[in-house]
Design brief:
36% helix; Flavoprotein-like_sf; FMN; Rossmann fold; FMN_Rdtase-like_dom; flavoprotein; 5 helices; Flavodoxin family protein; alpha/beta; globular
């Protein structure tokens, strides 16, 4: 399986990074991982100019930045894992930039003629961390990704998130690690279905 991880936390050793580390430890050598740390990349916001729609068989954008690398990796991947903390009830800014740029660059729906979704059939999943209870923190992003998947003709494998209950105690503990590994097993089960 080719797994693309889009990591959108500004904290390289923060809660999202800790969960991601526990998840990737479960993967065996059959999983080929490509990871982008979005906060360290040059990513410009979509301006909805729709020039990407003039090229219907590949990604195209007026911005000359690092997005082409992400686009290429997304097309090569089987599974894309969006990994982000929740800030103000949604993903962090670089993740939102990538989501916007991918939906326009991958989906040729917005030009003079209706084109294809270049990444139709790919599968996405969400890993998130948050401070509020899940139903008041990640619920909007989970629903957003469900709709995102449907619009893009993607498969939504599911979401896993963990709450930081108190800054006075460590985020990672045996129960959190157990749940992270269970999510990794779900991702690996998807890999088994590919073969």
């Amino acid at each position: 399986m080719k797994l693309l991880i889009l990591f959108a936390s500004p904290r390289p050793r923060g809660n999202t990074a800790q969960l991601l580390e526990k998840i990737t430890e479960v993967f065996d050598e059959s999983v080929e991982i490509t990871r982008f740390d979005l906060y360290g990349m040059d990513l410009k916001s979509c301006i909805a100019c729709r020039r990407c729609q003039k090229v219907t068989d590949s990604f195209h954008c007026v911005h000359d930045d690092d997005m082409q690398e992400i686009f290429d990796a997304a097309l090569e991947s089987d599974l894309i894992l969006f990994a982000t903390p929740i800030y103000s009830f949604y993903c962090t800014p670089p993740m939102k930039i990538v989501m916007d740029r991918l939906v326009y660059g991958m989906c040729k729906y917005y030009g003079e003629t209706m084109g294809p979704s270049l990444w139709a059939g790919k599968t996405i999943a969400l890993l998130s961390t948050f401070g509020y209870p899940e139903e008041k923190a990640s619920d909007l992003l989970v629903e957003g990704l469900r709709r995102y998947a449907k619009h893009n003709k993607l498969n939504f494998l599911g979401a896993y998130g963990e709450r930081q209950r108190s800054y006075k105690e460590p985020f990672m503990n045996a129960e959190v690690e157990k749940r992270a590994r269970a999510f990794a097993e779900k991702l690996m089960a998807y890999d088994d279905n590919l073969n």
